[in-house]
Design goal:
homotrimer, 667 residues, alpha/beta, TIM Barrel, Rossmann fold, 4 domains, nine-stranded parallel beta sheet, 33 strands, globular
Chain lengths: 667, 667, 667
C-alpha cells in the first residue's frame, strides 16, 4: 500500500434523511479517502427472498467514485434478514441456551446449508454489482466472524466424525481424554453424548477447538467466492476482534486468528479501548502487534472508536494521538466506526465522528487535522516495517483450557498475557506475537511464554532447543502443564522444558499472605505480594531470583533463571505485581542485550519505530498523559514531520499533553 | 366521600380457626369501618369449574353489615384456581421465560379468551350475590393489575395488527424504527420476527407500550361488567402499585396509570415504604400525589403496611404519623394489608395489624388511636382539595426507552424522577403529576421535566408556548432526545425546546472526576461532584448557572437558565448531588414566586395542606424524626384538632418524635 | 473394629499408565491398609449394555490381597454410562431446570425403573465377583447419594399419592397447608398443579421432605441387594456428605442422615475443610459428631482431603493433626480422596496424596508418619467410645422451612447450627446430635435447640417434660414457630415450650443498630450488637439475662432464663456475636455442672477424649495454631503415645505448631 487510508464505516441505509452529498462534502473536508459500506445490510440489499435492491450501494459508490473516495465492500452475511429466519428458522444457531431467537446479529449457524446457500447468493450478487467499480479497493468478508457457540445436532455430528478421524481407535479417545472418570467412557461411537453437558475438560476444550475450525472454513469459503470476482489489486480482509471486556482486551477465544487469516490478502481488525484519563495506548499497541503478526505484514484498522460509548468521548488531542499510534504499530488505515451516530435501535450511543445532529463537533474537527496530516506526510509513514527481536507465544488452546480449569485461577489466560505484554509496552519493547504453528520462532532473541497451559510435546522440545542454541525465554506459571489434549503430564513439571528451565515442582497452591524474598528489587511491600497462583519450585540447575516469604513455603523458589546451552530460561512461578514483573523483565532484557536507550523512557512516554517504504527509520514519541513531558530526542538526525523541522540527536523536546512527534531519520 | 375510611383487607378464607366474631369485636375497638374482601380467593368461591360456594363472602358480609362495617369487594381474578390451569394450561402467560407455571399470582395471559370467559363468569356470579348488599360500598377490579409481560403468539399477532394500523405502509415502520440497522428490516408483514428477540429499542419500546394498553382494555372490560350490577353510590376502583424496589418507588413501568384510571370512579393505590429509622414519608407523599393526579381527585389507599415485613415493624407513633400523612395527601382511606398475619404459604412474614397469635400488640393498639381520631375529627379532613402550582411531567414511554438504553445510564428513569420529587417534598413544595396527555399543563406556574427522553414534537412545541406565555420550567438531561418512536432527533438537541431553553449540545459523556464551578451554591466539595451523565451544553441565549470543573470540559455549561417570552426555562445537564439540585430548585422557586414561608422549614418538618369540605384550610405539620422539634406555627389561627385546642399564628409548638399537629384554620 | 483403617480411594481405571505395583509399594511405605475402589466406574465395568469387564477390579483386588491391603467396594451407581443415557434418556432426572443432560455425575432419577434395573444388574454382577474375596472388608452403597431434585411426572405422581395417604380428606390438606391463599386450593386431586411452581411454603417443604424419603428407599434397596451377597463380617456403609459451602459446612438439606443410615451397618462420611491458616478442626469435629450420632457408634471417614484443591495444600503437621482429629471424634478410618491426582476431566486440581507426577512429596511423606503411628498405637485409639452429656437437636424440616422463608433471614439454618456448635467446640464441650425421632433425648443433661423452626407438638411437649424433670435446654430465636406442616402456630409463641421457657412474644424485626444491655458480659461494643433477627420477648416467669439496647425496643428482653420444674430453659431471641453466645453458654454450662477443667482451655487448644477397647480413657490435646502452646496436662497419669512416655497430672507440655499429644490414662 502506498498511501494511508483514512476513513469511516458509512451506512446510507440507516440515514433518517438524505445526507449523502452533505456527508461527502464533510468527509472531503476531513480528507477522508475511504469508506466501508454494505456490511450488516442484507435486509436492505435483498428485501425479500430473491429480490435485490442495490440502490444504497449504487448511489454511495457513484458519489464516492466521483469524490475520489475509495470504497471497501463488506459482505453482509453476519446479520440475517427477517424473511430468511421466517422461512427457515433452523438457520439460527443452537447453543447451550437452546435455539437462538431472531434479533441480534451473529446468531446464525455458520455451517447451516440454507444459510450458506442464501449467503453465497447475496455475496455473488453484490460482487457482480460492485467488483469492477473503480473506487472499490477491497472486500471485507463478513464481520467479526466467530463460531457463535454453534453446537446443534449437525455440528456435533461433524465433531464426532472429526474425533473419529483423530482417534480411529475409540479407546485412544477414552485414554487420552480420561473419559473413564465419572463413568464418562464412550465405548462405542453411537453412545456419544450431547457434548454440551460434558464436564470433561479435554472433551470440552477439543469441541471448542473444533468450533474454531468452523470459522476458518467459513471465511475460506467466502474468500473463494469473492476471489472469483475480485480484481488483482483489490484486497480481501476480515475485521478480527478480541476478547471483549467492554473493550478489546486479549486473545480472541472463539477464533484462531493465525489460521483464519490464511485466506486473506491483508489482515484487518477493530480496536476499541478506554479513553479520557484511562487512555494508555496499550490496547492499540496490543491489537496492532497481534494483527500485524498474523501475516507478518501491515494490516488495516477497519474500526476504531470516534466518540464511542459512555465515557469514550476523547479529550482534545486524543483522537490524533490514537490515529498515529495505530500507524506506528504498522497499520495502513485508521477507520472510524462510524461516520454518523445512529438514530435508532441498539448502538445509538456508540457514536460516530458526527453526532446525531450531523454538525461539526470537536471530535470531527480533530479528525480534520488527522486527515490533513495523513495527506501531507502519510507517504512517509505508510507500510511501516517493524523488526522486533522479542515475541510473545500465545495459544487459543491454552486460553480455552484455562477457562475449563478456572476453578484454580480466578482470572484467565488473557490476564497473564496482558500482564506480560503491558510491562513490555510500558518499557517500549516492541514485540511480535507467535503461536505454536509459527515457523519463525527461532529468529527471535527473546520469547515470552505466558501460561502456555496446554502444549504439544514437540513445541516444548523445540523450545528446549531454542534456548540451547542461544535463545532467551521467560516462562510463567501454568505453562507446559498438559499436552495438547489437556491431559496433565505425569513427567516432571513443567513438562519437557523443565530441562532448559532447570527447575521442577509437584505442589502448588493459591497464595494467602505470601510475599517474595531474596531478591534485590526495589519494590514496595505491597508490590512484593504474590496472588492467584504459586508453584513450589525446586531448582535442579537454575539459580533462584526470588523465594517465597512465608512460614511454610519459605524454602521454595518463586522465580528462577537457568543457563542452558548458550541461552537462558527464566521461570516465574507465581502471579506477581507489575513492579516485580518489570524488574524481572529488565534483568532478562539486559541479559539478552535488549535493554537500550528507548527503555530508559517509560510510559507515559511511548516510543515506536519502523522502516518506511524508502527504508528510512521513522520514530514516534508519544505523550500518553495530560501533563507536558520533556524528553531528549535520542535517535538520529531527521525531520520532525508534524512541524516539518529538522531535529538532532540529544535535542530537548517538549511534548504537549496527548501529543506526539514523528521523526523520519535522514539516513 | 363524607367520612374517612379506616380499614383492613380481611381473609376469612385464610383463617386457621373461626375468628370472625372475635375479629369484628377487635375491629370495632379500633373503629375500623371498612374491610376489603374476596380479592385473591377465586379457588374458594369457585372450588370446581362451575361450582360456586359463597360461604366466606356471605358470612363476612352478614357479620360486617350487622357491625356497621362497610365492605369493598375485590374481584378475585388476579390469582387463578388450580382447576382452571389443569383444564386449560394455555391461560398461563407466555413471556421471555417461556410459558408460566402454576403457583404464583399474576401469571395469566390477560388477553386469553378462556381466562376471560371464566373470569367474567366468576365476576358476574359474585356481583349478583353481593352488589345489592347494603354494606357493600364499592368494588375493586382485580388487584395490582399489570400485563405480566404476556407476549405469546396471540399477543404478538395483535401487536402486528396494531403496528399495521399505525404504519399502513411498512416502509414507514422500517424508517421510523430504524429497522435497516443490523438487517432487521421487515419488508413484508409476514416476515415479522418474534419480538422477544429484538434488539431494536424502538420496536421493543413500542411493544411494551402496546402491552400497557392491554391493561387498560382488561380493566375497562372488568369495569363494564361490574357497572352492569353496581348501584349508583358504589364506587369502582383499582389497586395501583408502583415500580417496586423492595418498596413503592416510582412510576410503574407496566401500566399507564393515567390511561388505566379512566374506567374507574375513584383511583386506588397501595403504598409500601421503609420505616423505623428510614421512615421519611416521601413514598407516602409521592404515591399520594401520583394517585390523586390520575383523576385530579381524592383517592383510596387500599393497602399499606401494618407491621409489614422484615424491618418494617413501626416505632411508637409511626403508624399514626403515616396514616395522617396519607390523608394529608388527599387520601380518603387508610387500609392495612392486612388484618391478621397469615399462617402459611408465602407472605407469612408480611404481617398484619394482628400477629399470628391474634392478640393485641403495640401496632394494633396504635391503630386504635388512629381509628379513634378518624372517628372524632375525620369529617374535617376527608376529601381534602389540593391546589398546587407545581407539576412534574412523567412518562411511561420515557421510562421504557431509558430502560432500553440503560447502557448509557446505570440508573433509571425513576432515579431522576425521585431525585427531583424528593427535593420538592423535603422543601414542602406540594405538587401534582401530569403526563403528555394532560390537558391542564398550562394551569401550573412551574413544571418539572425529569428525563423526558422520548416525547412527541407537539408536546415540545406546547412546552415552548407554555414558557413563552409566562410558564416556568425545569428540564433535566436526557430530555427531548428522541421522538415518540424512540428515534433520536437530528435537529439541535434538546429537540425543539432548545428554543425556550436557549441551549444546545451535541456531545455528552459519563463523567469521571467532574465537578461544578462558577455558581454560588453553598455546597461541599463532594456535593459539587456530578455523576452518571453529563451533556456539554453550549448556551445560545441562556445564562450559565454552573460550568463543569474539568481540564477538558471546563468551557461547557452544566446548568443554564433562559428567559423566553415572559417565562423562564432552566436546564440541568447532568446528575448532580441532592444539595446542588436543592439550590437550583430554590432559585427557580424564588424566581417563580413559589418560595414561601413553608419552604423555610425542611424535612424532617413536613407541612401539607388543603381545603376541606367546608372549604376551610387544613394544615398538617409532621415531625419525621426521632427527635423533638420546635416550630413556629405560621398559618392562620385555627383549631389544632388532635388536642382540640386553639392555635394562633406565631405560636411555638413542640412536635414530639414521629408526631404531628393538624390545624383547621378558622377562616 | 479392632484396628484403624488408613487408606485412599484408588482408581486404576483413571491411570495414564500402569502404576499398580509401584503404587502398592508406595502405599505399603505409608502403611496404607485399605483402598476404596469401583465407585464411579460403571462405564469401565460395563462398557456396553450387558457386556462386563472386571479387569480393573480383579487386578486391583489381586494385588491388594497379596499386599495385605483391605478393599472396600463401592457400587458404581452414582455416575451412569453413556450407553445407558443414549438408550434411555429418561433416566436423567427432571428438575426445575428441565431434564438433565449427560455429563456430570448424580444426574439421574433415582426412582426411574430403567435406571434401577441396570443399577441392580451391575451391583449384582460386581457382588458376585468380589463379595467372597478375602481382602474385601465392606461395601459402600453408591456415593454421596442425594435426591438430585428429581421431580418429574413420576415423582410428582408418587408425591400426590403420598399426600393423599397423609390427608385422605383433601380439605385437610388445604387447611393444613393454607392453600386458600392466592387461590392455590386443590379441591380435587386431579387438579394437583406442577409442584415445582408452588409458592406455598408448606407444600414446597413437604415435597422436599418427600424427596428425602426417596434417598432412604434407594439406599435400602441397594442395601438389600448387597446383603444377599455379603459375608457376615463385611460392613455396609454410605459416604454421607454435608451442606456444601466450598467445604463441608452443616446439616445436609437433601438427605435425612438419621433415616438414611438405618440400612447401614456403619455410617460413613466425607469431610472437607479449609486448611493452611484457616484450619480450625471444627468441620472435622462437626462432621464426626454428626456421623457418630447417626447410629450412636463409630464411623468411617471414607474421604477427606490430601492436597485438596486451590488453597488446601496442608502446612507441615496439618495432615497428621487432621488425621488424629478424626480418630478423636470416634472415626475408625482416615481415607484420602484420593491416592493420585487425576490427569484429565474435572477434578484435576482436587489433588491426591500423590501429585500428577506420582513422586514423593511433603504431603505423602507426612502420610507415611501417620501410617506409622496408626500402626504403632492405633489399637489403643480404635473404636473410641464417647460419653457426652450435651446434645444438639437438628432438623432437616427446620432447615428446609427456613430456606422457604429466607426472605426473613438472610442467612440460613446451618448458620445458626454452626454458630452454636462452633462455640461449644471452641470450649471443648463434646456433644452429640439428636433429631426429632431420637429416643434418647432424655439422657442428656443439656440440649441445644438452634432455630427449630418447624416441629410437631409432641416433641415440644416432650421438651417441656424434659426440662420439668431436671433437663437443661438452650433454645434460639425462630424455634417452635410452626408445626410440622410449616403452619405457623396461633398459640403464644414459641409454641408450647413458652411454658418451660417462661416467655412469649408476638412481634419481631430485623435489627438495625440494636445492641444488648443489662447483662454483665465482658464483651466489646461491637460484640454487643445483634443482627439478622430479633424477637421482642416478654417474660412471663423467666428472668432476663439481656435486654435490647434501642430507643424503641429497650423494654423488651433479648435473652432469658427460666427455672421450670427442676430444670432450666434459656432462650436467645436474637442472633448475637460469638462472644455473647459464648458468655451465655458458659452460664448455662456452669448451671448444669458441665463447666469443668477442660473448659478452662479454649481453641486453639482443643481437647477430646473417649474410652478405648480396654475401657481406658484416651485424651487428645491438639494445637490448632501456628504458634507453640504451653499447656498443663490436667488428666490422670498415663502414657503419651506419640512419644511413648509417661505423663503426670499437672505436667507442663509444650505443643508444637499444628501438633498434638495423645495420652492413654493408666487407670
Amino acid at each position: 500500500m502506498k498511501k494511508l487510508l483514512f476513513g469511516v464505516a458509512y451506512y446510507d441505509e440507516y440515514m433518517p434523511c438524505d445526507r449523502l452529498n452533505e456527508d461527502v462534502k464533510m468527509m472531503k473536508e476531513a480528507a477522508v479517502n475511504v469508506v466501508r459500506i454494505a456490511e450488516s445490510t442484507w435486509s436492505s440489499v435483498e428485501p425479500q427472498n430473491g429480490v435485490f435492491d442495490f440502490k444504497h450501494i449504487d448511489r454511495v459508490i457513484d458519489v464516492m467514485e466521483e469524490a475520489k473516495i475509495s470504497v471497501i465492500i463488506g459482505t453482509p452475511t453476519y446479520a440475517i434478514p427477517t424473511w430468511l429466519v421466517k422461512e427457515c428458522p433452523s438457520v439460527l444457531a443452537v447453543t447451550k441456551k437452546g435455539q437462538g431467537i431472531y434479533g441480534a446479529r451473529q446468531n446464525m449457524d455458520i455451517t447451516n446449508p440454507t444459510y450458506l446457500f442464501y449467503a453465497e447468493r447475496i455475496i455473488r450478487k453484490i460482487m457482480e454489482r460492485v467488483s469492477k467499480r473503480k473506487c472499490v479497493i477491497g472486500f471485507q468478508l463478513d464481520n467479526e466472524t466467530k463460531h457463535y457457540d454453534t453446537s446443534g445436532v449437525n455440528v456435533q455430528l461433524s465433531f464426532i466424525k472429526y474425533l473419529r478421524n483423530k482417534f480411529p481407535n475409540i479407546n485412544d479417545l477414552n485414554d487420552e481424554f480420561g473419559l473413564s472418570y465419572w463413568s464418562n467412557r464412550i465405548n462405542s461411537w453411537e453412545d456419544f453424548p450431547n457434548v454440551l453437558g460434558t464436564i470433561n475438560g479435554s472433551l470440552g476444550a477439543e469441541f471448542e477447538k473444533f468450533q474454531r475450525t468452523l470459522v476458518n472454513k467459513f471465511l475460506s469459503w467466502q474468500a473463494d467466492i469473492v476471489n472469483e470476482y475480485k480484481k488483482e489489486n483489490q484486497f480481501v480482509t476480515q475485521n478480527f476482534d478480541f476478547e471483549w471486556r467492554g473493550y478489546s482486551f486479549g486473545v480472541q477465544p472463539k477464533v484462531n486468528h493465525f489460521e483464519a487469516a490464511k485466506c486473506l490478502t491483508i489482515a484487518g481488525v477493530d480496536i476499541y479501548h478506554p479513553t479520557q484519563d484511562l487512555l494508555t495506548g496499550s490496547e492499540i499497541s496490543f491489537g496492532g502487534d497481534m494483527t500485524r503478526s498474523l501475516k507478518s505484514d501491515n494490516y488495516l484498522v477497519l474500526e476504531t472508536q470516534a466518540q464511542g460509548f459512555e465515557d469514550w468521548l476523547p479529550y482534545d488531542g486524543q483522537l490524533r494521538l490514537q490515529a498515529f499510534s495505530h500507524i506506528a504499530s504498522g497499520a495502513n488505515s485508521v477507520m472510524y466506526w462510524h461516520w454518523h451516530s445512529i438514530h435508532n435501535s441498539f448502538e445509538t450511543y456508540w457514536k460516530g465522528l458526527l453526532s446525531h445532529d450531523f454538525k461539526e463537533n470537536p471530535t470531527y474537527n480533530e479528525a480534520k487535522i488527522i486527515g490533513y496530516e495523513f495527506n501531507k506526510f502519510g507517504d512517509k509513514l505508510v507500510s511501516l516495517q517493524k523488526k522486533n527481536d522479542v515475541a510473545i507465544l500465545v495459544s487459543n488452546e491454552a486460553l480455552t483450557a484455562i477457562e475449563w480449569f478456572s476453578m484454580t485461577l480466578d482470572f484467565n489466560y488473557n490476564d497473564v498475557v496482558r500482564w506480560m505484554y503491558d510491562e513490555l509496552y510500558k518499557m517500549n519493547v516492541g514485540c511480535d506475537f507467535i503461536n505454536s504453528d509459527s515457523c519463525n520462532i527461532e529468529k527471535y532473541k527473546l520469547i515470552m511464554v505466558p501460561a502456555l497451559y496446554c502444549v504439544p510435546d514437540n513445541l516444548l522440545e523445540r523450545l528446549n532447543t531454542y534456548v540451547e542454541n542461544g535463545g532467551n525465554m521467560v516462562v510463567t506459571f501454568k505453562s507446559a502443564f498438559t499436552n495438547e489434549n489437556v491431559k496433565v503430564s505425569y513427567n516432571d513439571q513443567p513438562n519437557i522444558i523443565n530441562k532448559c528451565l532447570g527447575i521442577t515442582y509437584n505442589q502448588f497452591t493459591k497464595p494467602n499472605n505470601v510475599y517474595l524474598k531474596g531478591h534485590d528489587f526495589n519494590v514496595s511491600i505491597e508490590d512484593n505480594k504474590v496472588s492467584h497462583w504459586m508453584e513450589l519450585l525446586k531448582p535442579t540447575t537454575a539459580e533462584t531470583i526470588a523465594y517465597y516469604d512465608h512460614p511454610n513455603w519459605g524454602g521454595y523458589s518463586a522465580i528462577t533463571k537457568n543457563s542452558y546451552g548458550t541461552g537462558t530460561a527464566t521461570y516465574i512461578g507465581c502471579f506477581t505485581s507489575k513492579a516485580v514483573l518489570k524488574e524481572v523483565l529488565i534483568g532478562v532484557l539486559k541479559d539478552s542485550n535488549q535493554f537500550g536507550q528507548e527503555q530508559e523512557y517509560n510510559f507515559p512516554i511511548i516510543i515506536k519505530s519502523g522502516y518506511n517504504l524508502e527504508n528510512k527509520k521513522v520514530v514516534y514519541y508519544f505523550n500518553y498523559s495530560a501533563q507536558k513531558q520533556t524528553i531528549k530526542y535520542m535517535h538520529n538526525e531527521g525531520t520532525e514531520l508534524t512541524k516539518n523541522k529538522t531535529i538532532i540527536k540529544g535535542e530537548e523536546v517538549l511534548l504537549e499533553p496527548w501529543n506526539l512527534i514523528i521523526v523520519e531519520e535522514n539516513i
